[in-house]
Specification:
Layout lengths: L1 E6 L5 H13 L3 E6 L9 H8 L15 H8 L2 E7 L1 H9 L5 H8 L4 E5 L3 H5 L1 H12 L3 E2 L3 E4 L5 E5 L3 H12 L8 E7 L3 E4 L2 E3 L6 H12 L3 E7 L3 H4 L7 E6 L2 H12 L4 E4 L6 E3 L19 E3 L3 H10 L8 E8 L4 H15 L3 E6 L11 E6 L5 E7 L1 H15 L1
Parallel strand pairs: 1-2, 1-3, 3-4, 4-5, 8-11, 8-13, 11-12, 13-16, 16-17
Antiparallel strand pairs: 6-7, 9-10, 14-15, 17-18, 18-19
Helix pairs in contact: 1-2, 1-8, 3-5, 4-7, 8-9, 9-14
The structure holds cytidine-5'-triphosphate.
The site of cytidine-5'-triphosphate (CTP) has 14 residues, from helix 12 and strand 16.
Amino acid sequence: MNIVVGVTGGIAAYKTVHLVRLLTKGGHDVTVVPTDDALRFVGTPTWEALSRNAVTTSVHDDVARVRHVALGQNADLVVVAPATANTIAKITAGIADDLLGTTLLATEAPVLLAPAMHAEMWRNAATQANIATLAARGVHLVGPADGELAGGDSGPGRMAEPEEIFEAALALLAPQDLAGVQVVISAGGTREPIDPVRYLGNRSSGRQGVALAAEAAARGAVVTLVAANIAGDVLADARHPSVRIVPVGTAAELSIAMKDAAVVADIVIMAAAVADYRPATVSEHKLTKEQGLLTQIDLLENEDVVAALADSRAEGRAPAGQTIIAFAAETSEDPVERRDRARRKRERKGVDLLAVNLANAEQGFERVDNAVEVIGAAGEVVASASGAKRVVARVILDAARGVR
Ligand code: CTP
């Protein structure tokens, strides 16, 4: 999607740097349009490096392509963050004395403002009247929050956090095609304890599952995210009012949480890397070399959680129309062999769709975070995607909707 991010002259501009990162990481084409004042806070090189698009404040650059109206016409969304009291007044009056002004007048895309100013300026009758006028025209607002402001004051006027602006932006872009749909997602990697300090684990970061949760929520779904050992900064991307996070550690804990949540789920997505085995005994005390206790670990097989969820559905213990999606990592370079393995795995597990992670996908792609093929019930490739994990999430959820 084409997103214009207008930046106006407030100290909160430094937080917009993170917003631009989130949007580009999400696979969007971002053009930053700062006002001259905004460049006093964060400079052109920063915006250009992050957005990978040229940045200008002037209507007199790139005149041949009628940039002053083209940007607005081609945008799917215009976000202004921070939106100062002055800019809000200018937008209300339709003043177009710079590129941001002309872009806002020329666009028919949704407009999202993230106001930031001192509490007195926010409460001022002029600002409140402007905000009311803009809201009546269909302009969307996120924030401002009540909190600490520049100069040590506090009150309403603090710009919403970048993650919140990002989610509000996505909600305006995303179709609400999953409104009210119950989606349960497992993500991360389980850890099977050996003793109080050691475990058997895997390298799954949980990023793809978190992207699925965020995307589903942006499209209106009610999401339960069963999160196995996901780092806080990764999990932060799933922060959304419609996402309930259930932290788990082991495969057994994940199994209980998933079975509990799946009872009412319309869509179940098993993106977690679940340990196939666990140590047969967990030592209460740290095992030591001196005792020679670490050279051999007896393992027991764990339950296949996703297969158990498919069995529950078959036995009528889940909504009949429930769609279940499993993941598989395949390293084979040969697409025929890879798909054959995937088909067998889908059947064995009794799931509707199997999303195959193409583990060697970086080769030949630029900045590809993930690449998947989704195998359907007849063994056919129903969808494929590569790129940012949020883009891959979008395609997987589209495929899930196709089954229902
Ligand atoms: N899975 C599960 N319970 C397990 C193991 C895996 O629910 N005990 C799920 C995973 O969440 C994932 C899918 O099954 O959705 C992966 O299946 P798996 O058979 O483990 O495949 P791979 O990880 O690709 O490994 P392999 O082909 O080596 O079996």
